[in-house]
TrEMBL record:
Pathway: Lipid metabolism; fatty acid biosynthesis. GO terms for molecular function: 3-oxoacyl-[acyl-carrier-protein] reductase (NADPH) activity; NAD binding. Catalyzes the NADPH-dependent reduction of beta-ketoacyl-ACP substrates to beta-hydroxyacyl-ACP products, the first reductive step in the elongation cycle of fatty acid biosynthesis. InterPro entries: 3oxo_ACP_reduc, KR_dom, NAD(P)-bd_dom_sf, Sc_DH/Rdtase_CS, SDR, SDR_fam. This is 3-oxoacyl-[acyl-carrier-protein] reductase. GO terms for biological process: fatty acid biosynthetic process. Keywords: Fatty acid biosynthesis, Fatty acid metabolism, Lipid biosynthesis, Lipid metabolism, NADP, Oxidoreductase. It catalyses: a (3R)-hydroxyacyl-[ACP] + NADP(+) = a 3-oxoacyl-[ACP] + NADPH + H(+). PROSITE patterns: ADH_SHORT.
Length: 252
């Protein structure tokens, strides 16, 4: 068996930028082969750039795959491509996510459905496909990106909060189903992290948020990636079905 075939394989959805990119880098730094994912062919070059950068820096095998996780066939193809290239899928990080904010009274069905389809159903599609392989392997780590908004709610985000609360229920149920096969499933609930997603905040909104954060700053993608790396490791084998907030003390 070659050194590359010996390495664990991690799939990180939505890893062209932001938290997903940081997670992909961190798992590669831990010695895993990494599958980087973009939502479409249009953003595939961004995924390819991340994959190339990681391969060069950490000396692991990488693959860039365009797949919209909201579409069952594309999510299945993403996991199949990872398995085909690596002979296994050991770690799945469901990070792909979007927001379509607006007050509930004025929110369209399209905005509600789009967020549920990607954040919640996309997570389900990838979990289902990867769990089948992990059950045969009798080892796996699933980390699903929720949000403090899924725990506490937020004005203007009924769709997003529902999707992220759904991710928590899904993760706990999956953890119960898979525990006997050495597969853990946990949810990470970031607070406000400096990425494209939070770039849209006005200065006033940003100041109001920071004033509620004990640490006095927005989080960095690496703050999340460090926890994901631990949850994906052998050392985290007795942690499953948990929701871990990483929010600088905002929710205290
Ligand atoms: P981001 O910078 O906006 O990046 C989103 C990533 O998701 C991109 O790689 C994007 O790919 C991908 N994506 C979007 N729709 C997709 C789809 N249908 N299929 C596959 N990939 C898709 O977001 P982020 O701030 O890093 O957030 C990452 C995750 O953390 C999300 O689940 C988000 O809800 C969660 N989160 C973020 C924060 C925060 O403060 N930033 C807080 C709590 C939770 P493309 O480049 O192809 O569009």
């Amino acid at each position: 068996m070659t050194e590359s075939e010996n390495r664990r394989c991690a799939v990180v959805t939505g890893s062209t930028r932001g938290i997903g990119r940081a997670v992909a880098r961190e798992l590669a730094a831990a010695g895993m082969n990494v599958v980087v994912n973009s939502s479409s062919e249009r953003s595939l070059p961004a995924a390819e750039a991340v994959a190339a950068e990681i391969a060069e820096e950490f000396g692991v095998e990488t693959l860039a795959v365009a797949a919209n996780v909201a579409i069952e066939e594309e999510a299945n193809a993403l996991i199949a491509a990872a398995a085909e290239a690596n002979g296994r899928v050991d770690v799945l990080v469901n990070n792909a996510g979007i927001t379509r904010d607006g007050l509930a009274a004025r929110m369209s069905d399209d905005d509600f459905d789009a967020v549920i389809d990607i954040n919640l159903k996309g997570t389900f599609h990838c979990c289902r496909a990867a769990a089948k392989l992990m059950m045969k392997q009798r080892w796996g780590r699933i980390v699903n990106m929720s949000s403090v908004v899924g725990v506490y709610g937020n004005v203007g985000q009924v769709n997003y909060a529902a999707s992220k609360a759904g991710v928590i229920g899904l993760t706990k149920s999956l953890a119960r189903e898979l525990a006997r096969r050495n597969i853990t499933a946990n949810a990470v609930a970031p607070g406000f992290i400096a990425t494209d997603m939070t770039d849209a905040l006005s200065d006033a909104q940003r100041e109001a948020i920071v004033s509620r954060i004990g640490s006095g700053r927005l989080g960095e993608p690496d703050d999340i990636a460090h926890l994901v790396r631990f949850l994906a490791s052998d050392e985290a084998s007795y942690i499953t079905g948990q929701v871990i907030c990483v929010d600088g003390g905002m929710s205290l």
